[in-house]
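Data availability (excerpt). The following record was deposited with the supplementary files.
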Amino acid sequence: MLTAIHTDAAPKAIGPYSQAIALDNLVFCSGQIAIDPATGNLIEGDVSAQTQRVLQNLSAVLQAAGSDLQHVVKTTVFLQSMNDFAAMNAVYATWFTGTPPARSTIEVAKLPKGALVEIEAIAVKAA
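Predicted structure:
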């Protein structure tokens, strides 16, 4: 059975989608951008600052679903510019300690609200 996941600790969906969907032991997280959930606004700052906020948001969604970043098996990172790869990667590495998940990184023309980075994830629920 599909279960929609929602938490006020992460930004509200800005369209007709759920923050995440849980199915059995899996959690499928929608892409997160660097929106401050308290204000609903995109944070200011470079890709490093935005990646930090994105991973805070993703972590909050996973927690609400009964998981965490250590149980992520796959991420997809969308960058407005591949020139930001090293800076994003440096922040990303601090959040995924131990065995990092599989990952794809894709450069895109635009992201919602002018974001520099968006990350989606698939995880298993914590035991």
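Summary of structural features: Strands lie at 2-5, 20-23, 26-32, 35-36, 41-42, 72-79, 102-107, 117-124.
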